[in-house]
Specification:
Blueprint (H helix, E strand, L loop, with lengths): L1 E2 L1 H19 L14 H23 L8 E2 L7 H24 L1 H15 L4 H22 L15
Antiparallel strand pairs: 1-2
InterPro entries: DUF1468 (IPR009936)
Organism: Prosthecodimorpha hirschii
Keywords: Membrane, Transmembrane, Transmembrane helix
Length: 158
């Protein structure tokens, strides 16, 4: 699928502006120049600037596309459609189940299904899903301190 640079640039710029508006309400850190709004604010500003640049490029460039959106031959491929639906369904499932069941219970089956829909054989998909989950948990929970949901495993949390 190809989306015209004008549309993508506008979308990115609007997301950047939304980030800037959101972080403008973040509290200041007393005695520090750097607060919780610095990183997302910088990212929002860059997203806005580069989005506007992409928008202008799309407006000035000669028309190479027939319309604003062109779909490719993958649209007729059941495997690609299944992979896309599995991704969206997995995100929805994680959002709805992670707090109740926990990261370590929800993510491995999601990763396994995603691997299968991408054409990976099931033994490889199983090992990869388990290793990927363990690595993500270790990196986010242990190294970065991100509070991943424990769900049913709360009494085993450490």
């Amino acid at each position: 699928m190809k989306i015209h640079d004008t549309i993508l640039g506008l979308i990115f710029a609007l997301i950047g502006v939304a980030v800037l508006v959101t972080v403008s309400g973040y509290p200041k850190m007393p005695g520090q120049d750097v607060g919780p709004a610095v990183f997302p604010g910088t990212a929002g500003a860059l997203l806005t600037v580069f989005g506007l640049m992409l928008f202008v490029k799309g407006r000035l460039a000669p028309a190479r596309m027939r319309g604003l959106v062109e779909v490719g031959p993958w649209v007729a491929s059941p495997r690609h459609i299944l992979a896309g639906l599995a991704t969206l369904g997995g995100i929805l499932a994680y959002t709805m189940l992670a707090n109740r069941l926990g990261f370590l219970i929800v993510v491995p089956p999601l990763m396994f299904v995603w691997h299968l829909t991408l054409g990976i054989r099931w033994p490889t998909a199983l090992v990869s899903a388990l290793l990927t989950t363990a690595i993500m948990w270790g990196l986010f929970y242990k190294v970065l301190g991100v509070p991943l949901p424990w769900g049913l495993l709360t009494r085993y949390a450490f």
